[in-house]
Amino acid sequence: MASLALSHHLIPFALFLLTRTLPATAQTYTNLTQGTTLTPLGPIASWASPSGDFAFGFRPLDSNASLFLLAIWFNSTNPQTIVWFANGDHPVQAGSKLELTSDGQLSLTDQTGNEIWNPGVRSSPYAALLDTGNLILSSSSSSSPLWQSFSSPTDTLLPGQVLTPGLNLFSRFMDSNFSTGRFALAAQTDGNLVLYPVALPARNFYHAYWATDTMGSGSNSTLVFDMSGDLYHALTNGTKINITSTRTYSTEDFYRRATLDVDGVFTVYIYPKKVSGKARWGENWTAVTNIPPDICTRPTDVGSGVCGFNSFCVLENERPDCRCPLSYSFMDSAAKFKGCKPDFKTQTCELDEPDSFELETVSGVDWPNSDYEHYMQVGEQSCRSLCLSDCMCAVAVFRGGECWKKKLPLSNGMEGNDGGKLFIKVPKNNASFPRPAPTTILAMERNNRSTLILVESLLLGGSGFLNLILITAIFAMVYCYHNRVLKKLDQGTTTLGLNLRIFSYKELEEATKGFSEELGSGSFGAVYKGLLPASKSTTSIAVKKLHRLHEDSEKEFTNEVRSIGQTHHKNLVRLFGFCNEGTHRILVYEYMCNGSLTNFLFGSERPSWNKRVQVAMGIARGLAYLHDECSTQIIHCDIKPQNILLDENLIARISDFGLAKLLRTDQSRTSTGIRGTRGYVAPEWFRNTVITAKVDVYSFGVMLLEIICCRKNLEAGAGDEDTAVLTYWAYDCYNEGSLDLLVGNDEEAMADMRMLERFLTVAIWCIQEEPSLRPSMKKILNCDGSGFYFDSCGTVVVE
Fold first, then answer.
1. Rounded Cα–Cα distance for residues 729 and 721 (Å)
2. How would you describe this protein's topology in the membrane (predicted)?
3. 712 labeled part of a ligand binding site
């Protein structure tokens, strides 16, 4: 029986309901007595709580197995998630030990014998790890713990835990680095609960980006995560301000935690417990609340903002993703939040050469806090000139007759700038790309100088007639060589095998009227509509300007584009050609007049069932071609409705296939090097495993459910938590035989119950956690490719 994976979905809630008070819960525990020692590689490295749900002891770091944390973690989840740690800033090596000494002190010492951590409690006869995940130091003479981990939190709260005034949660620096990170959640003594950016290494707080705004509500106001899973701010006067309610996910069925993540979002997660040794749905932590849900749009007064300097933040399913602007790249691709640096030598005021720079137009991005000069009642051209002539200006923004100049470093970058244009200053001479080494240039100059001296000597020493012959011969050789080079260049600027055309940047600028009509944008780049003049008519095109690419030479870029150009299938968007000129990397596709599947499915009117069936079949055929019929297998890595386009006959066409190869590894959609879009990402992206075509199968399964139900896989602001995550809800409906709930009042779909059942079965089959249990796209289609896998070919059994 196959278990199901429900991917790392995010469910935004805004539930402000009154909740119960925190109940007292009886606890059992196993004692750690005086004289007991734990060592990283010794016979006792950790011990579990009585239920086995939690464990305490030494954990090796994922990034460096020779370093260890003293930590508490969920013992039954996969991975075993850490919820508390003592030495995040000082991991220890083998030879370290934790000891409850004979005088009742709990002490962590490193391999040299230096004490790294001590909770500061003496005369404790025993330590215990409770079933709540709370580590306590206690004595028989005291009714309350002498010390407890619940009162010294790190980045996570557990049910039963309270964040009292004066306590903070600090995010980790990175997922694999447990030192103090860039964000803090503070329960302030004035009664306010606040999320702050943190200035490292000083740890002072910048301006808040989220707060309950309850200042003056009393010094005893606390953040409570009660045993029923409700998270609320309890004010001194007894008022409860709900942060979230997860009561729908019962304690019997789910583990829960609330973590201040490395990206600054305070997130409540649930994880399905195993029943009779098997998981209820699958083994994944799922986010059910994100605070704030719009972190990218919350600038700070000082500091870089959510992302680093010179980068900008894009919000995807309530999570921030940091990206670099045109001609900039990440300072550290493994830690995007460190910001971006120019890929060129910036303009200096000592050597002011405004003619050496130009302004590239960028849409949909803004850095609202980096202005240093503001002009009123100016035109666009004047705004451009004002920036080009100013050696300090790196970016200019023009909007509604106003012009803002910005200088480096840029801060608080985000999507936006509606109705405005943003111009980034870049060099004209392609400074961000490799040039011949200086030694090569010098050698060329020396060779040219030697040739010139030789010619001059011959001219001076010979007769006038010989000189004339020699001059004629030299000019003839130069002319022939020049013509040969021009002929090669001319041949290379028209076509590139299989009728792929190489466009100049000027051609595409004219075809798109200066890239004025944007069709959409994403992590790959922005897409513009254009018209190509032809002999008798014009051809509509979609022009995609790519962001920073894989570390490719021009030859590698050309080879990858040629590979994409060799694909020919009715369910793939056709590539006409490309531009590989200077800093510009542009792809030219056929234009799809009916837009994306997103607009088709989630518009004001529900499309007919037969049209949805046709679209689903087309997508399956296109993926099967990419996976099994191309000369080299292509894994898309980002299957979602936005990347499915519809032509004039509503035939589904897969777009952006092959772009994963062209993108740099640091252009991933999520912070852990994962490609794809949250909600559609297969579970194996979150593990250290080989990625196969089955990641596309998983994404197809999620999208197939959206096609069936005509709703998004994550419903923002859903009032009913049971239906907020489509994959959860669809599985429950499938189990209960309530298919009518999935399609609502769609009588056409209900009349075709046999096809509806097969579609739903295939979708659930595709989203299984284990990749090997998912079908191939070829298997999903039957032998003649005309429809989905039928009962005659086999049976799908889903628990």
1. 9
2. Single-pass type I membrane protein
3. no
